[in-house]
Design goal:
elongated; SH3 type barrels; 7 strands; two-stranded antiparallel ribbon; mainly beta; 1 helix; 144 residues
Length: 144
Amino acid sequence: MFQTRSAVRVPHGSSVFVQTPQPTWTGPGVIVAVVLLVALGAIRGGGEGRPSTPRDVVIAELDGAALRSEPFADSPAIRDLGHGQRVELLCHTEGPESFGWGGTSRIWDRVEVDGVTGYVPDVVVDTRVPVDKIAPPCPAERQD
């Protein structure tokens, strides 16, 4: 808590330099808030330091992205996803190199939106961390 006024007695004719403290973000309220945020983050996560999946992420590419049936740029588009649209990240796999908002990568993310599942290049999704830190590899597809 800060005082707004204070009084100091000085001899007549003396000069006094007064420096007032600047407000800081400390105290029990801030400490409780930080502990609460850390606890909420820990509750959301999964075992071995990896958050549980599916995980909500957003399409970061300004032009949006196509949700595809397979992790290839030439596979059929299932639907269009707009910039900022939330999707559930299920897993990730390797595919042909693609480029977008996040640079260039061979990683493709399997996502679900409104009950529809498909693939988008990892470089169009804002995962905030490397995708392998928040989602498992996709199970291998059976090749019969």
